[in-house]
Amino acid sequence: MNHTKSKVICIVLLALLLTFSLTGCNNNGGNGNEEAAANEPVVIASKPHAEQYILGEMLAILLEENTDIPVTRNFGIAGGTSNLHPAMVSGEIDIYPEYTGTGWMFVLQRDLIGDSREMFEAVRDEYQDEFNITWLEPYGFNNTFTLAIPAELAEEYDLQTFSDLGKVAENLIFGAEFDFYERDDGFDALAETYNLNFKETREMDIGLKYQSIGAGEVDVINAFSTDGQISLFDLVVLEDDQGFFPTYYAATMVRTDTLEKYPEIADALGVLEGQISDGEMTEMNYQVDELNRDAADVAREFLESKGLL
């Protein structure tokens, strides 16, 4: 009788042990899923040119060094904003650096706002309302269209602004890629605004502009204000003193859902606010474009030089 009773007790204890074990396994499985979700990587993307690789690396390095958030790099997305923006909206990517003028005029299809701060606040507010995407404060540099001229010519004619150029344009040859002559905000409108009656204008492949001005075949070219080749060919960027071209201040965009999940992102990436001048971005682009340095090395060196790491 005692033997039978002991056997029954053992069976009951084994059953209880098995039940607790299964329950424990189930609980562990749930925690595992939650943990996996909590550790889901944040995807940082960029457009396919040097400046964006450098900025993307800065964002990735800042998150890796200052948070526990896992990061996936997805740099060099072909098609630029045309593919990055829908990827942000759909949640395929979480973060990428964008330009105010691109967001306002290309994505939102709004008319130009001359005041750069007003444009930033407008694009920030509309992205939040329409796409649930948050713009952090701009980095400081403005990668806009501009006009560039050899330093020696700028000194000879005492040129600092587009208006200055209008006074001596009849002595100079202007060169630009084909579509700059066809854009609504291209050569004709620019020439009318600043009275730019050049001695001659030449159309050329975009990849040959800098070689042409370096060889003295043209005297003035259109350019992006942070092109690395501006330093290589010792060119001076003139000031658009009547604000003809839109401003393209760069800033970090983050999906608001991602910010709510990882609120520490705002502080970790917000340290870049106002930290990068036009000259500093141009020099970093030069390091990558012309000296073939790795974008990650250039980005890390800059962050260290600013005391951000």
Automatic annotation (TrEMBL):
Gene3D superfamilies: Osmoprotection protein (prox), domain 2, Periplasmic binding protein-like II
SUPFAM superfamilies linked to this entry: Periplasmic binding protein-like II (SSF53850)
Top-level taxon in the UniProt lineage: Bacteria
Residue span(s) of domain ABC-type glycine betaine transport system substrate-binding: 41-304
GO molecular-function term, one example from the UniProt record: transmembrane transporter activity
Family annotation (InterPro entries): ABC_Gly_betaine_transp_sub-bd (IPR007210)
Cellular component terms per the entry's GO annotation: ATP-binding cassette (ABC) transporter complex
Signal peptide, first to last residue: 1-24
A Pfam family annotated for this UniProt entry: OpuAC
Record key words, sorted: Signal
Protein known as: Substrate-binding region of ABC-type glycine betaine transport system
